[in-house]
Design goal:
Blueprint lengths: L1 E4 L6 E4 L3 E3 L2 E3 L5 H6 L8 E8 L3 E7 L6 E7 L1 E8 L10 E7 L5 E4 L3 E7 L3 E8 L8 E3 L20 H4 L18
Antiparallel strand pairs: 1-2, 2-10, 3-4, 5-12, 6-11, 6-13, 7-10, 7-12, 8-9, 8-11
Amino acid sequence: MKVLDTTLPDVKLIEPDVFGDARGFFYEGWNRARYAELGLDFNVVQTNMSRSARGVLRGLHYQWPNPQGKLVSVLEGEVYDVAVDIRRGSPTFGQWTAAVLSAENKRQMWVPEGFAHGFVVTSEHALFHYLVTAPYDRTADANLRWNDAALAINWPVAEPSLSDKDAKAPFLADIPEHRLPVYSP
């Protein structure tokens, strides 16, 4: 397994060792001891799945308080996956990184607590899988606008399909300070 750095030091891409032949393939999608050896030591308390059609954009979501770290992957299809550092006081506050995650490349992205996360489906459909470090907390649920000009995310879809919640999400500059995670080095 390889852990690859992204443009944001805390966000990582993981390329699992894949063993395959004419019959198919096998790889470990999660092994706590192996991930911990590579510096990704966290508890998984919940798994989530979503299925979306081409052009659906989900995000940018986060929880505060009670933040969630997420290890995300795609089981069918392909997405453009984005993580944004929204931790107050972080040297990379407001910066983002992205990667293509697909069933074919089998990459995973580690999105630590304190980051907003979102993705847009670039294939006919995508089955998206999340391992999270904290349970969903409706009172901590928050999001920010996918097309915030201050973030300047280079989404590959100009007019995505959005939920009402995501379409009406606030811009980062309009989120009250107490509703943003705090950076702790």
